[in-house]
Design goal:
This protein has four helices and six strands; from the N terminus they run βαββαβααββ. The chain is of the alpha+beta class. The radius of gyration is 14 Å and the shape is globular. This is Enamine deaminase RidA. GO terms for molecular function: deaminase activity.
């Protein structure tokens, strides 16, 4: 089996190792990022929905940066939302702070009943920069 090319953001490697998963893997010119939630450095949920969404995006931004990517490199997004009917609009007020102008990546939103104490999770696939690793 080929060794996985794992990307760790600064300061959070112990959290990923404790939970036994990789934050992101470089493969065939793409970066596959695990679901990111609005967690503090020790892993607990940030209180308040919009603050939690911002933290999830900031956690995602740190992983993208560790792979020399930005939100502009993201091509596919999946979000998981607890009670999306009640929370979707509040969440989507935060999204433009990170995505910027259209065209935006593809998006799949999934309503879920449980996210380990979180209300929002985002996972993405990004195109690695030309000439970069992976």
């Amino acid at each position: 089996m080929t060794q996985r090319d794992v990307v760790f953001p600064a300061g959070r490697q112990a959290l990923y190792e404790r939970n036994r998963y990789s934050p992101a893997i470089r493969s065939n010119g793409f970066l596959f990022v695990s679901g990111q939630v609005g967690s503090t450095e020790e892993g607990s949920p940030v209180p308040e929905l919009q603050a939690q969404v911002r933290q999830a995006f900031n956690n995602l931004k740190a992983i993208l940066a560790a792979a020399d990517c930005t939100f502009d490199d993201v091509v596919d997004v999946t979000v998981f939302i607890v009670d999306p009917e009640a929370k979707f609009e509040a969440i989507w007020e935060v999204v433009p702070e990170f995505w910027g102008n259209a065209p935006h990546p593809t998006l799949t939103a999934v309503g879920v009943t449980w996210l380990y104490g979180f209300e929002f999770e985002i996972k993405v696939i990004a195109k690695l920069p030309e000439g970069g690793k992976g």
